[in-house]
Structures are given as C-alpha cells and as structure tokens.
Amino acid sequence: MHAESLPAGKAAALKAFEGMAAEPGVPKPDPILVVDNVVRRFGGLTAVNVKHVEIQRGSITALIGPNGAGKTTFFNQLTGFDTADEGQWTFNGQAMNGVSAYKVARQGMVRTFQLTKALSKLTVIENMRLGAQSQKGENFFRGLIPGLWRGQEDEITAKAEDLLQRFKLDAKRDDFAGSLSGGQRKLLEMARALMGDPQLVMLDEPMAGVNPALTQSLLGHVKNLRELGMSVLFVEHDMDMVRDISDWVIVMAQGEVIAEGPPDSVMSDERVVDAYLGAHHDAPLSAEEEERQLHEAEAELDKESTE
Ligand SMILES: Nc1ncnc2c1ncn2[C@@H]1O[C@H](COP(=O)(O)OP(=O)(O)OP(=O)(O)O)[C@@H](O)[C@H]1O
Fold first, then answer.
1. Could you point out which of 125, 241, 261, 304 has its C-alpha 20 to 30 Å from the C-alpha of 165?
2. Taking every annotated instance into account, which residue ranges of this chain make up the domain ABC transporter (predicted)?
3. How far is the CA of 233 from the centre of ligand 1 (A)?
C-alpha cells in the first residue's frame, strides 16, 4: 500500500520510522517519552534494566517479550505506580521520575487497568466518572456530593456519555461493569483512560480475554487513537495484533530492551526468537533432560525416606 492511501496518522507514523536503524535505544525524530537507565530490583532479581529507549509521538508502539521479561513492571514505573531504584525519564521533555500516578495522568500519560473486583461492582458510568476523578487525584465520593461539585460533575458525566457512545457501550451505561464480556471490559478500560484527555495512552494487554467477534472493533479503536493524534504504547502477547497495528516494536527480555524495529523484521530477529524460546518452559524436554530430572526426583525421594 502506498503511504498516500493510508490514513493520515498511519502514514505519518510510518514515515517517522523510515530508514531508522533497528537497534535497541535508537533515537526517534520526535519522542514523547525518553527513558534512561531505569532499574527495578526485587530482592536479588533485576526485573527491569532499561538503558535507553524512546517512544515516537503519534505512533503505535508495541512492547513485547516473554513472560517475566519486566514489561508490566516497566509500565508501572513509567506511570508512577511503582518506584524505580534508579533512572530518569521525561515525558514531553519534563522529568517524570518520582512523580505520583495521578500527576503523571494529569500530565497526559495514562495507562489502562484491568477491572478489579471493586470496580466490577460499580456501574459502567460510575467507572467512567471514577476515571476522571482518579486522574485528577480527587476523591470520587466527594465528587458525588451535590452542590459545589455539580457543575463539574455534569461536565464529567457528559464527557463519559460521549465516550460510551463512541465505544458502543452506551446501552450498558447503568449495568454493573462486572457483567460485561471480556471485550466490552477492554473497551471500558480504554474509554475510562480517555476521560483525562491523554496524549500517551498505555494499554496493558488490550486483547487478553477478548472474543474474536470483538477483535476488529478493538483494533479499530486503538488505531483511531493514533488518528486522533494520540501516541499509544501497549504490552501484548497476541502477535497477530502486534503485527496488525503497531508501527514499531520494542522487545524486552530479562528486564532489558534486546531489540527494536518494524513488526515483521523484529519478530524474525534471531535474538527475539531465542529470547522467546529460552523462556518457553512448556517446550518438550530432551531425553537427557527428562532423565536428569527423573534422577533428581529419585534422589529427593531417597533423601526424604532416610531423614
Ligand atoms: N512485586 C514483585 N515482587 C517480586 N517480584 C516481582 C514483583 N513484580 C514482578 N516481579 C518479578 O519481576 C519479573 C518481571 O515481571 P513482570 O510482571 O514485569 O514481567 P512481564 O514481562 O510483565 O510478564 P508477563 O508477560 O508474564 O505479564 C518477574 O520475574 C516477576 O516475578
């Protein structure tokens, strides 16, 4: 397909990556997020150790990697939900390390959340309103008190209703969020994130638990964020989705960024294939490995019976 026939957002995003070296930490022409030397340790385990990474504005960037690679921990740090042991990062040129989650959201960097048990017991519209309040760092229940807050409340409700319509959730307005299907929950998570008019939307596994019937609709909504001028960074295990919607892919393994590049080439990169295979614990065991494990188990049993 020629760039001219692509939607404006997609064409511009692809143009920005044209000719870019596919290597970890490669500089981007207009980064919205720049990360340097971010480290997070849990006891003896270094869960995140990202030297340098840049996220291009106006693009859809996927963050992939095997289980336990550190993707969620990295996401949590960038959005103020976890503290980094070391490192700095800037959003729109402003230092963001040590900034609390709601202030990060207010600056325009918002992540989606899976519906927790508590949120499932609220209605869809209440979830949306809560999205606005929590991004402002305000108390939700104080926001429900009539009078002083009413004007602001009306505005928030109107905005929530607009978004619910856009995400085709308006018929579910007064249903409990817990009664939504997997795909509808994902739509609600995305709609809720948009309550704060983010510039960078960070999606945590947007396709997890989504019925194939809703896949295209969800993909369409993510692409639309880019058409509306937002930047998207998402963590995802579904490689079809990654291939379909991302302009650029960043790969993490064992806490580090090990590769970057356009979707097709990065997924066939030897380092990436190795990282996934190395982390694939379900792979069939070789005959020697099976025998070794058997001996180990027998030795354990022997030890136990003599103790
Ligand atoms: N709160 C914690 N305490 C101790 N270890 C943790 C904690 N959170 C994460 N870890 C460890 O840090 C490593 C990275 O985990 P993380 O969840 O960030 O990986 P991930 O790439 O998001 O994995 P997945 O794709 O399975 O969600 C893992 O080894 C995990 O066990």
1. 241
2. 33-279
3. 18
